[in-house]
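Working notes for the structural subgroup meeting. M.R. asked for a predicted model of this chain before we commit to crystallization trials. I am recording the input and output together here so anyone reviewing the notebook later can reproduce the run.

Input as submitted:
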Amino acid sequence: MKKKPTAVFTAILSAALLWGGVPAAAQPAMEPNIVVSDSSYVDGISPRLKYLSSVFTDMTIRGNRADCQGNYTTFQNVKVQLQVMLQKSSFHSSLDSDWSEVASWDLTWTGPAQKILARSYTGLTPGYYYRVKTTATVLDGNVPLETVVVHSAVSYYGG
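Returned structure, recorded in token form:
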């Protein structure tokens, strides 16, 4: 007895779904990998990073000037937006809500590379604590795939 083509097609489709899982259109959207660290350095070993190999930030205060830097390393051909933000607080705190933005710089690069964004800000207000918050975001178009946030050590500027 000959099997009808639709029966064969149904059997193949059923087997593919059983072994291959759910079709891509039915799978939920993948959540971006977001890592926030209180240290100034994160590498790809811990926590597990998929696209970025490392992210680092640093700040040095000289007189009333803050020298700020953030950098990342990736070995993949991806688009990365790097933001370096100088922040201040009236007291030493680890809560983001206690910090306000003083200045911010960002650049976007594509390709495997190690990139550094270094800027200076002159005109620090005496009597405040300062830190740098660096955010590296891997993008697919405008969709974030992975975000890593690191903070520099906190420094007091007395004037």
